[in-house]
């Protein structure tokens, strides 16, 4: 079984910074693309950013230039540094990963971590 566990998040004022992290653990052979999604109250979950195993990242336009994703393949972790945060960034942030295990390739979600941007 594979688990994604997020950490970080919290409350920050507009213009501030936060960092969220996600660690994949369990019966892992290889982790392919890792991504962050977010879901604001009353809205659908939306894709924010992703990074492949070669470190190539793609960002949604709404966060480009403010958010930076990185990963450490050796310990199957992905980090999201969020700068110049805006109230509209408030959401539950979910980690997502494509993981190769003993039973093949599957997609997993973390439990989510709350990010609140408010004065």
How would you describe this protein?
This protein has 119 residues and is mostly beta strands. Helix content is 0%, strand content 61%. It has strands spanning 2-8, 10-12, 18-26, 30-39, 46-51, 57-59, 67-72, 77-82, 91-101, 104-109, 113-117. Strands 2, 4, 5, 6, 9, 10 and 11 form a seven-stranded mixed beta sheet that branches. The model has no long low-confidence stretch (mean pLDDT 97).
What does this entry show, briefly?
It contains no helices and 11 strands.
Radius of gyration from CA coordinates = 14 Å
Please, what is the average pLDDT? Answer: 97
Contiguous runs where pLDDT drops below 50 for at least 5 residues: none
List the total number of helices.
Answer: 0
Distance between the termini: 40 Å
Write the layout of secondary structure elements.
Layout: E1 2-8, E2 10-12, E3 18-26, E4 30-39, E5 46-51, E6 57-59, E7 67-72, E8 77-82, E9 91-101, E10 104-109, E11 113-117
Give me some keywords for this one.
four-stranded antiparallel β-sheet; 11 strands; 0% helix; mainly beta; 119 residues
């Amino acid at each position: 079984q594979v688990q994604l566990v997020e950490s970080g998040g919290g409350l920050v004022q507009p213009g501030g910074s936060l960092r969220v992290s996600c660690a994949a653990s369990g019966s892992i052979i290889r982790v392919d693309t890792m991504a962050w999604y977010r879901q604001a109250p009353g809205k659908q979950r939306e894709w924010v950013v992703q990074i492949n195993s070669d470190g190539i990242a793609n960002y949604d336009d709404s966060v480009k230039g403010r958010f930076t994703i990185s990963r450490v393949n050796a310990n199957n972790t992905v980090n999201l540094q969020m700068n110049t945060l805006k109230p509209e960034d408030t959401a539950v942030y979910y980690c997502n990963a494509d993981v190769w295990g003993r039973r093949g390739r599957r997609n997993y979600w973390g439990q989510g971590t709350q990010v609140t941007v408010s004065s």
